[in-house]
Write a structure and sequence with these properties.
Length: about 260
């Protein structure tokens, strides 16, 4: 039976690349995001693929609203008959001094990165339980673990995501559901342009991955499950550096985001 993947934030960047990678690998994919036209473009691109592939179902939805995600999950199950894998990917960045930021920006960030992940997991797990198992993949950030001045609320929102992933992993084991948390490092997507509070001038000293690299690793983790994935040596070094010399990592982060 072809496995079915539900991806939030499939209209651009990592979510879009992951949708393509799963379809090319023969999975069926339901992709949700707010920009319907972007999802239609992706559907056209997938329909034009010549290789044998899964099917892509575009569903317009907003992760900040529980009912929108519950409806998207229902449409997925109605169309494909099942839901096996969740990629809780939709997210947004933010920069600036936390105290001086617009509350509207902070609220959007919290509702997207925190509420959105909770809504997605809470909507998908009942379907996975019905069919006796599944796999939740959360897209966190290597920043969750770093002193992150001027990106404090974003880093804290990703700490929430990783903490939820690590704790619910034990809660859902009895349902035969696996949980993999991705600590993603800098990736070339629209993320920086969409950053609330303004984009940053990205330093060339921090290497950048492609969304395809992250997508390939996500497909791979389904075949060979892991609890935590940090893709690059550079990001592992950052995490280690933060443990040993958090002050220095904080100063480097301040230079990036200020
Ligand atoms: N790029 C990086 O350097 C980097 C590093 C670490 C972690 N990450 C994480 O990777 C994930 C994907 O980001 P990306 O880099 O691919 O950025 P992106 O290109 O800006 O993609 C973000 C996606 O999230 C969707 N989204 C945002 N708000 C939404 C909402 N309320 N409801 C539904 N979908 C929503 C967007 O779709 P619509 O606007 O169409 O709704 C879009 O598809 C995020 O969780 C981000 O925190 C990225």
């Amino acid at each position: 039976m072809t496995q079915v993947v539900f991806i939030t934030g499939a209209s651009s960047g990592i979510g879009r690349a992951t949708a393509l990678a799963f379809v090319k690998a023969g999975y069926h994919v339901a992709g949700t995001a707010r920009r319907a036209e972007r999802l239609s473009e992706l559907q056209s691109e997938i329909s034009a693929l010549s290789t044998s592939q899964g099917e892509f179902l575009p569903i317009t939805g907003d992760v900040t609203h529980a009912e929108s995600i519950v409806s998207a999950v229902a449409q997925t199950v109605e169309h494909f008959g099942q839901l096996d894998i969740l990629v809780a990917n939709a997210g947004v960045g933010q920069r600036g001094v936390m105290v001086d930021a617009e509350w509207e920006d902070l609220e959007t960030l919290l509702r997207t990165n925190i509420d959105g992940v909770l809504h997605s997991i809470r909507a998908c797990v009942p379907e996975m339980r019905k069919q006796g198992g599944g796999h939740i993949i959360t897209i966190s950030s290597v920043a969750y673990n770093l002193v992150s001045p001027y990106a404090a609320t974003y880093a804290a929102s990703k700490a929430f995501v990783s903490s939820i992933a690590n704790s619910i992993r034990i809660e859902v084991t009895k349902d035969n559901i696996k949980v993999s948390d991705f600590l993603v490092g800098r990736t070339e997507t629209e993320f920086n342009e969409n950053r609330l509070g303004g984009s940053i001038k990205r330093s060339k000293s921090v290497p950048t991955m492609t969304a395809d690299t992250v997508a390939e690793a996500i497909v791979k983790v389904v075949k060979k499950p892991k609890n935590t994935v940090i893709l690059r040596f550079f990001d592992r070094l950052l995490v280690l550096g933060n443990r040993l010399v958090p002050g220095i990592i904080g100063k480097l982060a301040a230079r990036q985001y200020q």
